[in-house]
Amino acid sequence: MGVDVEFDWTGKVVFKSSRFDFFECNIYRIKGNFFTQVNLRCYELSLRSLRDLITPNLKILFVGTSPGELSSKSGHYFAGPSNVFWKLLFESKLTPTRLTAVEDASILKYKMGLTDIIKKPTKTPKEIKENCSMKNTQRLNRAINLFNPKIVAFVGKNSFRIYSQNQAKLEYGFQYNFNDVRMYLLPSTSGQSYADTKYAEKLEMFRELRRYSLRL
């Protein structure tokens, strides 16, 4: 079985094959030669994690909760047909053109990036709950320290609660500073989130994020 090898930003190696989406494992060096050691994780092709779209010194790093089924199968962020993330970016003037999920990597040219607090794809709230741990927070903190975005904007209360371990009532907008990084909370853009915030409310909060980012 042919296998391609590449490294991701966490320092782990990723093995790609036709049978599985990827294998991920720690790498150790013994007498100059690499060999793999336990803790091998395999993900089926049907459900795959999304690659982080992060570069140094971003204006805004958006953090979703977890790849949904459509996003994980397509390999693109916020890919659900009822998800309005890309529409909100454009209508709030955070992007000058209306991007689609398949163009998600283009967000980098506007000094914005994308990741998820839980990298493993999930289908249900129960699966999200099962995958909540401090490892998610630690992983994102490593990315923040490494890439130093000005703002980390959590898309939805779930993503911020998983990161902060804060179960108290949350208000949208600026939360606090993490070192020199501003932690910010946006409403969910899922089509299932309108009981919490209507589209006009979501749009105003995205516009406020843009105004906030311009002041930095």
Question: Short summary of the structure?
Answer:
Helices cover 26% and strands 25% of the residues. The protein has 6 helices and 9 strands; from the N terminus they run E-E-E-E-E-H-H-E-H-H-E-H-E-E-H.
What do you see in this structure?
There is one protein chain. The chain has 216 residues and is α/β, with parallel strands linked by helices. It folds into two domains: 4-43, no CATH class; 60-214, Uracil-DNA glycosylase-like domain (Uracil-DNA Glycosylase, subunit E). It is built from six helices and nine strands; from the N terminus they run βββββααβααβαββα. A five-stranded mixed beta sheet has the order 6-5-7-9-8. Strand 3 and strand 4 form a beta hairpin. The longest helix is centred in the C-terminal third of the chain and has 16 residues, at 199-214. The model is unreliable at 1-8 and 11-45 (pLDDT under 50).
